[in-house]
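Lab notebook, bench 4. We co-purified these components, and the gel suggests they stay together. Before we commit to crystallization screens, I want a quick structural picture of the whole thing.
Request: model the full complex, all chains together.
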Amino acid sequence: MDFFKSGLKTVLGAPEPGQLPSGAETVERLVDRVNNSTLLEDRRDACRALKAMSRKYRVEVGAQGIDTLKQVLELDRADNETINYALDTLNNIMSPSQFEEEEDNPHVPMNIGEQFTEMFIKDPHNIQLLLDLLDEYDFRVRLSAVQLLTSLLTNRTKDIQEIILVKPMGVSKMMDLLGDTREVIRNETLLLLIKLTKGNANIQKIVAFENAFDRLFEIVSSEGYSDGGIIVEDCLLLMLNLLKNNSSNINFFKEGSYIQKMLPMFNTPEDLEDIGWSPQKVSNVHCMLQIVRTLVSPSNSAQIISSCQKIMKNVGFLDALCNILMASGVPADILTETINTVGEVVRGDITNQDFIGNVMAPSNPPRPAIVVLLMSMVNEKQPFPLRCAVLYCFQCYLYHNELSQTSLVQTLLPSSTDVSSLTSGRLLCGGLFSADVLSNWFSAVALMHALVDNLGQKEQLLRVLLATNVGSTPVSLLHQCTLLLQQTTKLQSKVALLMLLCHWMSHCSAAVSAFLQVPGGIGYLVNQTCSNEHDENEYLLQGLSAFLLAICIHFNDDSVESYTKDALKQLLVKRIGVETFTAKLSEVSKHELYNKAAKHPQLRVKIPAEILIDYEFCRLFKVLEGVLINSISEKQEPDPSEDRQSPAADNLEQYKSLIRQQDARLQELMQQLDGLMQQNYALQSALNDSIASNSLLKDENTLLKAQVSAKLPSQSNQTNQSSQATPGQQTQASQATNPDRILEYENKLQFLNSEVTRLTAELKASEEAKKIFEEDLVKLKQGQDDLKKDQDDLLELLADQDMKINEYKMRLVSLGQTVEETQADTELNLT
Amino acid sequence: MAYAYLFKYIIIGDTGVGKSCLLLQFTDKRFQPVHDLTIGVEFGARMITIDGKQIKLQIWDTAGQEAFRSITRSYYRGAAGALLVYDITRRETFNHLTTWLEDARQHSNSNMVIMLIGNKSDLESRREVKKEEGEAFAREHGLVFMETSAKTAANVEEAFINTAKEIYEKIQEGVFDINNEANGIKIGPQHSTAGGAKAGGAGAGGAAGGGCC
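Here is the predicted assembly.
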């Protein structure tokens, strides 16, 4: 507080005596100072003071200073100290947690940090500012920037993830900080990355791409694997984030041989028992087991699961897990989680299941590990989660494995030789009839899993005989179960036995007839189904009884005289009624715990009371519910003998007809498709044709236009007019989008063009005529000239003749002759 | 599995050009005619041999859709090789190559080897981009070029392997800084200790694996 006061004094000057300024006023003056001071030192001091005030006066500093502080980040980049104060102040304002200083201040809203965060990220550029600051090497700046980003992410995870995702170097920059040699920064970066990767697959993939797994394993190994501190846990948490529900990253993890790198995590030193497990080691190993389970989780794709399982077996991972199982001094929760993990590592993989079946526990006498585990399951002194884990592990051991299912049933059969030794079958039978409800439930469900989809074992199990009392005749296991069902008053035992019987008798008519022979069995079921108690669990019991009753009818081979299929159906219709029966059946899937169980193969319960329904039973129920309702409600078959022969036959017939129908439909659709394809083809070719002719017309058009514009100036009046019209038409045509109009214009144009050609032709013709005339004229002129010449010549000749005549006249006159006649003769000659 | 080097690849190009199919053909040797749109980025891996050395290829197949562009940009920096794919039956995918190349050059390290791939070479009848055009584009921008068919597997192996060869040569020439993992290249665990670790790893099984590092 002293520092705070002195800081204020240096910045604000000494306060007036007796009158202290209020918090808001002080903040206002400080913000003013940051905004307006020209000296860097002043701004820095004001920032420092703001930082000091930001815890107690968070609302005031945030409301007035957030923009100013953003400016500082932008403009004062050169001064690390100022930047650092600004970052710390922002971090305080936006801190997700409440400060001690503000605890007694009722005016601070609970989510104040979130509100300021929202304001801050309205401009995504602000995030870029912070990302840029990550490049700053200065320790304080870098650290504060990382912390501020972490706070922002805590407050508005999704928004900030989206902003960072679109910054090409955003994630890369943060990943680079993992390599910072200053451990504080590295560790804070880890926390930042954990927040950043939460629930965002795209960011997870980028982080993995940036070599996250390598870096993290480097850190884990340098910190001493599971013996390391909380940093190891942080690394593992980040890995877990990267892998959870992210098949691409799981694939990368597997392909990158990182599974092998996890192995040293599970190395158990020899003297572990003496040292004990530190709480941190427990957390670390727990995280590691979570990672393993993420890789082989039943919700992954089958391909990923099986390849991960194979690798885990091959590199000795499964051995290491089994070592933990068998080691002493392992804390209970680690043991529980290891059992779950072993279960998922072997689930559905025959090699691994076989391996786990052959592991021997270091007990005296040596017993198979499976037997030792089952001993814990039916032991009511063991912790509840551990017992659940054993059941899950055992289920996984039996899952999709006829061999392990067979070998379990084998241990119950009379032929099994060694009576004294403890076997899994014996343990389960013991559990089934023990006084402990949970043991009943666990054992019944475990036994049920040996029968899942395995008709052979359903029949084999019918052979199991139990000696109830010394001297009395042995009864069959099925018989005993049915009796127990009627006797017990405990809900969980009843439900468990009903589930076991349902699985046992479904698809197995031998088991159905065995059940029908047990006195009181059917009567009990009918009574249960009819019962009218109003309670969620009672509804469930009624539903389960109805379900079992329907199984008795549907899978009945009529081998028991008094309870043939038809007789039972009649009984059901009369005593219960089809409507009521259907309603009761539907109650099962409405039960809360049914829905919980149906979600995941592993039982996820916290308290023993929540144990009621099993996952595999839900599967059976889902498959059979519809079939059974159909089979009960359908009318009597016209030919019951056929029906009797095989209950599956009509089913088969139904499917056949369905397939036939679908086939016909398919054919029909195919034909339709063909028709449509042809149509499509025809339309396509028509389109192509029209496109081609269109382009042809266009070409012609342009050609003609060019011709027209070239020819027109030399044409006669009439054609000139038409050439004046063409430019107008041209523009109109280019404007008109309507192809009809274009066509119209094209037609007009064509008409005009033909006119032009016609006129041109006429012109040519007339020109030719003119030429001929001219030629004629020339010829005529020539003729005329010739004639003129001739005339001239003749005139000349005439003149000559005249002269000669005159001469001759003169001579005649001189000779004394008359000249009249001769003149007339000459005239006559001339014409 | 021991390897001498590990190379990171990315596959980029327009949506629907067959990036995921190329990867599937290369890693699983199968063709899937109907493939969902890639969301973000998917991962695949395979081991190849070059010059007698085992080389592990880690391949990130990116979404071609514009909406994922900003996400896929984050992958350029850390990749040693990129397959830039177009579809020879769709001219526009070829036209967009310049944009892709600019993007890649801007965000990647300068040594990244880029292989230009004209995919769907089996659809010769629908071809819109001539092989010569692809060759010319590659020559102009200094890329390696190849036409492939993810359907018939033609040239698919070669495309991935030739890219690796190119990277390998660059390493031999000392162009790549192989100690900087941001380049998309990693030296394998066996490389540093030669043959000894290999024999040890084989003999003692998984437990010895940790010791040799």
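Confidence is low (pLDDT under 50) at residues 638-644 of chain A. Worth comparing against the SEC data before the next meeting. The beta strands of chain A are 360-361, 367-368, 465-466, 475-476.
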